[in-house]
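Predict the assembly for these two chains.
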Amino acid sequence: MTQSVGIVTPQKIAFETPIALSSGVTLPRYDLMVETYGELNAARSNAILICHALSGHHHVAGRHSQDDKAPGWWDTMIGPGKPIDTDRFFVIGVNNLGGCHGSTGPSTIDPATGEPFGSTFPLVLVRDWVETQARLADHFGIRQLAAVVGGSLGGMQALRWTITHPERVRHALVIASAPKLTAQNIAFNDVARQAILTDPDFHGGDYYRHGVVPRRGLRLARMLGHITYLSDDGMGEKFGRLLRSGEYKYGYEVEFEIESYLRYQGDKFSDYFDANTYLLMTKALDYFDPGRHYDGDLVPALREAQARFLVVSFTTDWRFSPARSREIVKALLDAGRDVSYAEIESVHGHDAFLMEDAPYHNIMRAYMNRIDAEVNA
Amino acid sequence: MTQSVGIVTPQKIAFETPIALSSGVTLPRYDLMVETYGELNAARSNAILICHALSGHHHVAGRHSQDDKAPGWWDTMIGPGKPIDTDRFFVIGVNNLGGCHGSTGPSTIDPATGEPFGSTFPLVLVRDWVETQARLADHFGIRQLAAVVGGSLGGMQALRWTITHPERVRHALVIASAPKLTAQNIAFNDVARQAILTDPDFHGGDYYRHGVVPRRGLRLARMLGHITYLSDDGMGEKFGRLLRSGEYKYGYEVEFEIESYLRYQGDKFSDYFDANTYLLMTKALDYFDPGRHYDGDLVPALREAQARFLVVSFTTDWRFSPARSREIVKALLDAGRDVSYAEIESVHGHDAFLMEDAPYHNIMRAYMNRIDAEVNA
């Protein structure tokens, strides 16, 4: 039995100071949905911010009620005695601005109109999220985070934190991430977006007022996403060419188990996730490019950083392959930064960052112990 | 200036003998659209059958008129003095049964109803195509083909020929192909199919009578297909993160050049290709598994073969990687067959099999010279 943080309660925190976003739009106010686990120490030096990926949120660990079916999305990593140990750290989970889990986003009612923002909600960049998260740290009276931790798009936020607020991050844990998307990464995102944008139920992003959701598009986007989260080998081990009924049916119903799995994932996702948030998150991924203002060179950008880094990648991850993590490591070294790097053997592709695995968790635990020794001394 | 076969004219050949398909359905008759280049020799021993891939057809080389904008899809490979030399071989291009370029398929008028077949057109397997192609060889009075040649799904047809009609194939050239699809391959196909099947304009496959086509679905399917035809590196070299307008626009219009390319490819394809044919072709891919009746073992299946083989793969092809071609080679060797294998360095991914490249063409040319020496002696 692994320990859990137990029953947790999210809180909605209101930010009434306007925020000027990278897109040029200013939001007069916004809410962030947040969960915290563990206790902030007297020096306020033991806070760990967890940044979520494309479809994540603030509910990172524990359960919302006794009969909650599943725990938070990173419950294997975070809890008492776990690699990110809530007996020693104050852990903050936040749903990013633009999300669909309680933070202000496209599906939120715009007080100016009394209708959901929909198509009028601005695009939000990784640097904007970092700004809202910095204000969240202010809210808790935290001057410096012990660590910012994230996988995938979450890792990009950790990286951006170290550049934008160098003095406010002691450590950055950048997992299964990349310094910027490749053309292929953008291409996958664009197919997913086009599936949503061309769904007749999208209505230019204002589907709320039509009482529909672009379910078909969102379902396709998620099915495609899932292919890129799993490895070819992992899918082969789990599904191979297994047939649903044991024989060919010669039709378009589910024939292979992999089809059943993907369609189920797509259906489930389209029941609860907001399409505008999905679009916005994929654009944040596309735009992320911290070296952009230095002719595409990450090194000068990272010279700003003061944090120390742990970079982790997984061998069969082809969405953000180990080569992409090594680009980050190389840039950090060239910028004179302190970086540890681990490449974990795994068959689980990109999804490996979410899964329980002894070598991976041992590395995370060892690194967190080092942070503990610094901040809880 | 490379030589061309010049102006070519397709012919529609009627087959009035019923064909019992693998799905259990019998078609009473069908037409095949065909082009031929070069001359059949007196011994009728110099015929080369070209099998097409997912979106291919009978128009393999030459042009249909002086002002035809583009030549046939494999014009770089086939023509006078080219690797498949029409001065020495009689080359046959055929649009497969179920196609949408003149052969009987879902968009053909069903004489029984006076309406397009649509949803009533049966699924067709690779082995069914081979049967129709064998009848096509009969039509030309050809007992044995000098070679069956194909890339991707075309390579699967070449492989199937050697098993089903061992005595009728002298050589099989299996290029950028695979012995069967992986779960990931099937997954990509299923996302493409779901895009078409859930398009409101699909109408269960009978969109013809509604005067619409499921353009959105077909466009998404093609966009996704294109990602898998190109390599990550190739896309990076060609498009990278190049912006259409030089700066971020913060919207869902084309931002990166790769988006423009994919959307253009999708739009173009959805203008001319039939959605039911696309569905049917992807299912033929999924079902192909010549080792299936031998507990998934390709070796006993290939023991039937008498042909000699050339297997070719391309280093950056991740749709059907070199490892998949090596599976074929290994099975052929274990079955005691004669096989040559070439792994070509290329940045062009799966698409490399369609492109002009000296090392690739030199290998094809050398192998074809060997066939020439045998059949035109």
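The mean pLDDT of chain A is 97. Residues 358-375 of chain A form the longest helix (18 residues).
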